[in-house]
Design a protein that fits this description.
Blueprint: H1 2-22, E1 40-46, E2 68-73, E3 78-79, E4 88-89, H2 103-114
Antiparallel strand pairs: 1-2, 3-4
Length: about 120
Amino acid sequence: MKLIILIICLFLSFSTLNTQEIAPNVPQMPQINTDCGQNSSFKRCLTRCPVTCSNYSNPPKGCVKNCAIGCECHEGFIKVDKGPYSQCVRPFECALYRKKPTTFAKNVLERKNNA
């Protein structure tokens, strides 16, 4: 009986060694960045149709419930753009992130920098 147990242990040891030789060639799962910017926190199941500065006046409707991984803006904040790690701002700050900011946006930015 001891001999059978010894043979089984040796077999398992060799099969484990063989697996370890193969394992380095198996691609690793990518690391997920869980660091989020200000006004947001990491979530494992986000909507794929977030409200952003570009769609704030006409938010997406009927979005499919597929989960996306990334950062979700806290209540009262929206994403500047659609990226999973996009910056979250108050809706009135969206004007600051347009390609050509309005005069109002420039004034808000100046006041913010001088404060």
